[in-house]
Structures are given as C-alpha cells and as structure tokens.
Amino acid sequence: MKLSRRSFIKLVGATGAGLSLTQWGFNVQPIEAASNECRIQRAKEYTSICNFCSCGCGMICHVKDGKLINLEGDPDHIINEGALCSKGASQWEVANSDQRGVTPLYRAPGSDHWEEIDWDTAVEKIAQKMKDAREENWISEETVDGKTYKVNRTDAIGFLGGAQINNEECYLFTKMSRALGASFLEHQARV
Ligand code: SF4
C-alpha cells in the first residue's frame, strides 16, 4: 500500500490514540462519534498555492456548498511541509470577506463611478484594448549605432504575474506575452 505523508500522519495519529485509550479501559465510541461530526466532513478537498509571496506555500482547502470552510498548510507540499505564516493562514478571511470583489468593475471614459459588468463583457473589452494597443504601438524595426534590426515587439503592453501562478501557468503566460510581442514581463513578488 502506498501512503502519502499526510495519510501516514493521519493513520499513525488515529491508531496511536485508539491503542492508548482502549489499553487504559476507555470507551472510544463517543470519541469516534464526535470525530464523525467533524466540520470538514463531506467537504470537497482542493489543493492551492498561497498568493501572498514568492515562497508559493501549498495549501489544502475544504469547500462545502461553494464556500471555503477550512484552509490549512499542505503537509505533502515540498516548500512549506504543512506550515503557513500568518499571512497565508489568514487567507481564509480573504476568501470569505464580504468586501471581496467578485464582479468586474468598469469605469467608462469621463465617468466618475464604477459599474459592475459581466465577465464576458470584461474579457471582450480587455481583448479589444490589447489588440488596439498592440497595433497602434507596434515596433517592427529598431536602429542601433546605425544598424537596423528586425525587432517585432510592442512596448505598450506589460504582463504582471502573481505568486499563485504555478510553473505550468507561468510557462503559458510567458508564451502568450512573447507571442503578442510584449517584452515587459514581471512577477508580483519582485515588484
Ligand atoms: S504562507 Fe506566508 S511564506 Fe508561504 S507563500 Fe504565503 S505569505 Fe509566503
């Protein structure tokens, strides 16, 4: 049987507690019943990555009825091995905050207020603006010290990645920026 580190710790903990209590004559049934009422029971478990800094600590998230009900460090994660700093541990509050923005906001040119728009409209607007910026600011050649080079790039678009983006997503993100001809590519953790 192949056991992950997390499963091993759970198993050892459960077995150890069961042995020591029954050995001393305790009735463990009420304890078992109480553990079955655990608040993460029937919650769906997901892994995620903390977005606050470049360490990229791994997290386990429990979601029930579409709501994050528990968040803890992932003991199987190579970076944090189950630990989270205060910022990472407080991310539970971020996800459940009533001040969290969940809808795109748009402020029209000249307007003094933001209005909620749907995601399709927001993506459409961003795509159109990127296309316009790229076409209006395309640099095909550059002359340095009297020599002209083909450069094919735009300096009008910059990409900023975040710590929650994993390696594979970073790869795609970089590919997309290069394909668009954008040379300014940065990471939030370096800013
Ligand atoms: S838990 Fe703390 S150390 Fe880890 S990525 Fe988040 S902010 Fe950084």
Q: What is this structure, in a nutshell?
A:
By secondary structure, the protein is an alpha+beta fold. It contains six helices and eight strands, in the order H-H-E-E-E-H-H-E-E-H-E-E-H-E. It has helices spanning 5-23, 29-36, 86-89, 91-96, 119-136, 167-180, and strands at 44-49, 58-64, 67-73, 105-106, 115-116, 138-144, 147-161, 182-187.
- The helical percent reads 25-40%
What is the CATH topology of the largest domain?
A: Phosphorylase Kinase, domain 1
SSE order: HHEEEHHEEHEEHE
* N- and C-termini, Cα separation: 46 Å
Low-confidence stretches: none
Number of domains: 4
Task: Calculate the mean pLDDT score and round it.
Answer: 85
Strand content: 25-35%
Briefly note the structural class of the backbone.
alpha+beta
| Bound molecule types | iron/sulfur cluster
Q: Which strand order do you get reading across the main beta sheet?
A: 1-2-3
**CATH level-1 class of the largest domain:** Alpha Beta
CATH architecture grouping of the largest domain? 2-Layer Sandwich
Number of helical elements: 6
Q: Based on DSSP secondary structure assignment, what is the total number of beta strands?
A: 8
Outline: elongated
Radius of gyration: 25 Å
